[in-house]
Amino acid sequence: MHHPKLYARVHKKHHEWPAPIAITFVYSTRMEFILNMIPVVLGPMLTNPHLFTLWAWYAFVHLRGLKNHSGYDIPGLTSSEEHNYHHMMSNACFSRSPVLDWLHGTDKGFRAYMARKELEKKG
């Protein structure tokens, strides 16, 4: 969504909230909603899961999105700090996985930001 040809027309609306709240998880253009739903719907369409599995999958996807935009740090789950930083800067932490951001180097600014926050706590 952050490709120069897509961002202004498709994803910028979602970034109107630099400090996201849970409801902004679904705050997007119609095109972004459709593009975001393709991977969510494609798996169940290809695998024809049991109804319970389908409900569990959709619950997981939507609860993860709500959590990532809530600002809360829930023990046992990945932190929403990466996504908060993504909304503050809009040029880092693009992935849904911190491991992929680390692998592609899109989390360098975030790691430096967290190190500064840690120093401020100590200092």
UniProtKB/TrEMBL annotation:
Domain called Fatty acid hydroxylase: residue spans: 1-106
Subcellular localization(s) per the UniProt record: Membrane
Superkingdom of the source species: Eukaryota
UniProt entry keywords in alphabetical sequence: Membrane, Transmembrane, Transmembrane helix
Main location (coarse class): membrane
InterPro entries linked to this entry: Fatty_acid_hydroxylase (IPR006694), Sterol_Desaturase_Related (IPR050307)
One Pfam short name: FA_hydroxylase
Protein name, per record: Fatty acid hydroxylase domain-containing protein
Protein species of origin: Daphnia magna
